[in-house]
Amino acid sequence: MTDETSISDNPDQDGASYAAAGVDIEAGDRAVELFAPLAGKATRPEVRGGLGGFAGLFALGEYDKPLLAAGSDGVGTKVAVAQAMDRHDTIGRDLVAMVVDDLVVCGAEPLFLQDYIAIGKVVPEHVASIVSGIAAGCIDAGCALLGGETAEHPGLMEPGEYDISATAVGVVEEDELLGPDRVRNGDVVIAMASSGLHSNGYSLARHVLLEQAGLPLDGYVADFGRTLGEELLEPTRIYAKDCLALATECEVHTYAHVTGGGLASNLARVIPEGLTAELDRGTWSPAQVFRTIARLGKVAPEEMEKTFNMGVGMVAVVAEEDAERALAILTARHIECWNLGRVRLARDSDAARAVLVGGHRG
């Protein structure tokens, strides 16, 4: 005898629907109505059409030998802080920064960005708040918010949960492409200050501050001069326009966006074989948030440096003769910056391509 499962009609059961299964199409439509005016402000003259199409359209314009640059990223577990604080208007800036600031490393101008929001339950006001931050970030970066997708995932994500990601496209003339092949012995490494943790290392930060130290997100922390949640939600700085402006005025050889892996690891990606970027810790003092995490969590210095940006969000490698000019230009653009180190010939073939020496100030 075999087991059988019988399927029969239940006359007392209401008809199934997408809404009953947890997907509210009408809520999604209301969310679009709320964020459409915000997204419409993040545009460029090359955008064709509008929101609501199946694809975003962008006229590339006239270039001699254009190279398209593309990048995708997310915000990681910083999203968990935004959800716990029930504040969703800043996390979009983080998303834009993480994507567009990767593009400018090679000298590419960000043209447009498309976002993806996966959410357990669409609450129109929450989605509109997220998109407001994305739109504001795109304006800061000078790129268009060309479109995106909001996907409701009941059963896979809890109603209050969401995650965000984005893809951006930029363009650079082939003969203006920045990268390791331009870096030379004697180049100067210039640091641009971060606004805080940016969007990396939050698993460790949350473990130390929330779990080990037991600090409440809404509690005032004297070290920071504000609540812990406000400190952790400080938006990632967007350097795109500043980097592009600097490259037009100075001989910039490459940039390095300091994200996961820390300063030395990310800079090493743009230093060619045979050269080493020697960086002096004594040129700056890490912001208080890094010192607090290290102290409360007894985190070793080497662990801090490979997890966090430690106060340096972007690095420019410039020709020696343009170093002072580069510092002046960035300062005029209200970017805190300093001479971080210098590129030198490697002592041997196994030498690291970027090293930190000395101790921090303070």
From TrEMBL:
Pathway: Purine metabolism; IMP biosynthesis via de novo pathway; 5-amino-1-(5-phospho-D-ribosyl)imidazole from N(2)-formyl-N(1)-(5-phospho-D-ribosyl)glycinamide: step 2/2
Known catalytic reactions: 2-formamido-N(1)-(5-O-phospho-beta-D-ribosyl)acetamidine + ATP = 5-amino-1-(5-phospho-beta-D-ribosyl)imidazole + ADP + phosphate + H(+)
InterPro entries: PurM-like_C_dom (IPR010918), PurM-like_C_sf (IPR036676), PurM-like_N (IPR016188), PurM-like_N_sf (IPR036921), PurM_cligase (IPR004733)
Top-level enzyme category: ligase
This protein's record includes keyword Metal-binding: no
Any one cellular-component term (Gene Ontology): cytosol
Compartments it resides in: Cytoplasm
Biological processes annotated in GO: 'de novo' IMP biosynthetic process; adenine biosynthetic process
GO molecular function list: ATP binding; phosphoribosylamine-glycine ligase activity; phosphoribosylformylglycinamidine cyclo-ligase activity
Occurrences of domain PurM-like N-terminal (ranges): 67-172
UniProt KW Repeat keyword: no
PurM-like C-terminal domain: residues covered: 185-343
Annotated keywords: ATP-binding, Cytoplasm, Ligase, Nucleotide-binding, Purine biosynthesis
EC number(s) reported in the record: 6.3.3.1
NCBIfam families the UniProt entry points to: purM
PANTHER family documented for this protein: TRIFUNCTIONAL PURINE BIOSYNTHETIC PROTEIN ADENOSINE-3, TRIFUNCTIONAL PURINE BIOSYNTHETIC PROTEIN ADENOSINE-3-RELATED
Family: Belongs to the AIR synthase family.
Protein name: Phosphoribosylformylglycinamidine cyclo-ligase
